[in-house]
Design a protein that fits this description.
The complex is a heterodimer of chains A (116) and B (115). Chain A has 116 residues and is mainly beta. Chain A has no helices and twelve strands. The chains are: A mainly beta (116), B mainly beta (115).
Chain lengths: 116, 115
């Protein structure tokens, strides 16, 4: 069975501060994908990143960066110089690479509030 | 770029009524997924279709059924609605490249309220 844990239920930071959202996962699959999705107050789910289990390189996209550590089964997400528009619920998710079993297993989400 | 289209965006039904949710995947995407997100919860997988065939099934109630049509759009049919069915229903689509897996892109969701 797959499981994703986001221990931080809610985080509030002042604008321009850096913030890291934690994600820990469990899976028996040898290959898998990890994802981050953003759900703003408007409700849609916005794809942010996909990481293959065999690629442990960290990734940076503008103010966003992701740290994947297979040894600790973690896939953490850092927002640098946070902005009010970053306020949202962020979901970490996991899927198998096996055909017919690609459903996403989500964590419970972290509600991030950026205070102006 | 074209995104996943879901209709209707909002739906209000009475208990025991029937509802049909529609999903139009991103053009050329061959796989559709349905998820249910209750208030304050994470999305839960319901069912998926690949090339018009059911490919995986999650915790979908027997009162719900779904299918994918020849034009790849999908419909989720919900009967004997219960108060607990009130939720945000997402459709996502992806393109499988051979034996690989592409990213699931989500539609805006259909908010179902059962009174």
């Amino acid at each position: 069975a797959q499981k994703v844990t986001q221990a931080q239920t809610e985080i509030s930071v002042v604008e321009k501060e850096d913030v890291t959202l934690d994600c820990v996962y469990e899976t028996r699959d040898t290959t898998y994908y990890l994802f981050w999705y953003k759900q703003p107050p408007s409700g849609e789910l916005v794809f942010l990143i996909r990481r293959n289990s065999f690629d442990e390189q960290n990734e940076i996209s503008g103010r966003y960066s992701w740290n994947f550590q297979k040894s600790t089964s973690s896939f953490n997400f850092t927002i640098t110089a946070s902005q009010v528009v970053d306020s949202a619920v962020y979901f970490c998710a996991l899927s198998s690479t096996n055909f017919g079993n690609e459903k996403l297993t989500f964590g419970t989400g972290t509600r991030l509030t950026i205070i102006p | 770029a074209a995104g996943v289209i879901q209709s209707p965006r909002h739906l209000i039904k009475e208990k025991r009524e029937t509802a049909t949710l529609k999903c139009y995947p991103i053009p050329r995407h061959d796989t559709v997924y349905w998820y249910q997100q209750g208030p304050g919860q994470d999305p839960q997988f319901l069912i998926s279709f690949y090339e018009k065939m059911q490919s995986d099934k999650g915790s979908i109630p027997d009162r719900f059924s779904a299918q994918q049509f020849s034009d790849y759009h999908s419909e989720l049919n919900m009967s004997s609605l219960e108060l607990g069915d009130s939720a945000l229903y997402f459709c996502a689509s992806s393109l499988k490249r051979g034996a690989g897996l592409d990213t699931q892109y989500f539609g805006p969701g259909t908010r179902l309220t059962v009174l």
